[in-house]
Amino acid sequence: MESARQRGFGLYAGVPCSYLEPLINRAIEDRQVRYVSSANEGDAVAAAAGACLGGEGGVAMMQNSGLGNAVSPLASLTWVFRFPVLLIVTLRGDPEIGDEPQHRLMGPITTTLLDALRVPWELFPTEPEAVEPALARACDHMESERRPYAFVMRKGSVAPYELGREGAARPRRPAPGSDRAVRRYAGGKAPDRRPSRAEALERIVQATTGPGTVVIATTGYTGRELYAVADRPNHLYMVGSMGCASSLGLGLALTRADLRVVVVDGDGAALMRMGNLATVGAYGAANFTHIVLDNEVHDSTGGQETVSDAVSFAGIASACGYGLALEGDDISILDELFAAREAAGPRFAQLKIKPGTRQGLPRPSVTPEQVKERLMAHIRSENSASRAS
Question: 197 pLDDT exceeds 60?
């Protein structure tokens, strides 16, 4: 881990596997890196990509049985935007040693799946002297291609390391008895009387003009409408990896505590990876703002209904440890969200909006890679400005 730290890897996100136990335990105890216990492997990849966005190396660790959960962000986030995430994937169901029934298919196809995802890989080094050369090969690829590289870990590749309970880093927990009640604004408006997505995004743009603010918009009409309202260097428009916007934003917010990261989600995306609400609640801080624009339909695919009419995302966020949780169908909740003084943790708002979008909605003319590079340059300039002051 020391070699990786010297090469700039500072955020580790993952889902445990017994083969990974020594690495995860070291990451948890090492106060010079951050460990995020992700709800699923795709969220781990997106969180590690968020660290890359903030200028720090990100590592995503997972059992190969969960590699399927990571296919979407590997195919449409790290590959398309070119985020050089380092993957460590275990080889349960190793054809040479056998395993439990649930691993018998994934074991033989793990490296084939990585090949199909165009992720170059090699076996995890098993000797101390092999670690640095292996890292050098991985970093050379990631620096030249700006895309992921994987180490495939066989059983027993790393010596056991027992987690010490004393002094280990822990996720943030709300203080006992803290008041995290949901604040509700208005309610009961007919869907066609609710604010539109464009109106909500215009209000968000107005509230994010200050220095040190980043806006990440989920895939579909949300990103496209944000681009139509205003195309700014502090924007990132997701073009896939549905549901991963909040994980990406969390990785960035943890890496760059000086930034205010605003994630604009949709109800369908939030439902798809709802487990990340718990991860944000545990690890996120007041510099993370999460907005769900809830129109109760999958708008960009024909208006099919979601199940969000029966879901209080704000209630879930509050229960997961967000420091502030608002919900309603009055656009003023966005004003309250951005005007609120620092909360004890991340902030959340669920705004009910009406379905539909404007005619002739444009697609961004800038490529995902250009959007990412532009945002990273903006973040670097913000960092330079803050240091100069």
Answer: yes
